[in-house]
Write a structure and sequence with these properties.
Mean pLDDT: 82
Oligomer: single chain
Distance between the termini: 26 Å
Number of strands: 0
Number of helices: 7
Order of helices and strands: HHHHHHH
Strand content: under 5%
Radius of gyration: 23 Å
Structural class: mainly alpha
Length: about 170
């Protein structure tokens, strides 16, 4: 939610889960049952984990590779005694997709990417931090925290309203 365009990031997460479902399913139900010891398990897990590691190393899509690796770890539930239940896998995958869809709707509803919303949020944060200064017992540390928070919030707001010079100037003022 703190990044730019959280609904688009949620859509990318849902697409990642859909795309990763096939290799995760193959790894879990076709390769892992063949593993009888540690070296064979390492070989069975290598294609998926190395692919995820390669994707993680890419700066622009790295978080999606991490999501795929976490998705595999969550749905496979590797244990000493494995249970291979395809229905459970599909139910878990569907629940993850449903959760991402709910998050996407909530981001679009409550955190719209409109410059006016970003400006109002910045003003509210300024008032919150000013209230923290007023209620602080020691003035100097509170002022320092306010300055840091103001700069961080201003930087975030200015990047979100960069196409609206009037709103950016108002926030900066």
């Amino acid at each position: 939610a703190s990044g730019e365009q959280p609904e688009k990031i949620s859509m990318a997460a849902a697409a990642t889960v859909l795309i990763a479902a096939v290799p995760v399913f193959v790894t879990q139900f076709y390769l892992l049952p063949l593993a009888v010891d540690f070296p064979s398990m390492a070989v069975a897990l290598a294609p998926l984990t190395l692919t995820c590691a390669f994707i993680i190393a890419q700066p622009t899509i790295g978080p999606l590779g991490l999501l795929a690796a976490v998705y595999f770890a969550f749905t496979s539930n590797i244990d000493n005694v494995m249970t291979y239940d395809a229905a459970s896998f599909l139910n878990t995958s569907f629940a993850i997709l449903l959760g991402i869809a709910v998050a996407m709707v909530l981001f679009a509803t409550f955190f719209p990417e409109a410059p006016a919303y970003a400006s109002r949020r910045f003003r509210r944060q300024v008032f919150v931090h000013l209230g923290d200064i007023i209620s602080a017992k020691s003035y100097t540390p509170a002022l320092h925290r306010y300055q840091i928070a103001l700069c961080e919030q201003l930087g975030t707001t200015l990047t979100r309203v960069k196409n609206e010079p009037k709103i950016a100037a108002a926030c900066f003022a």
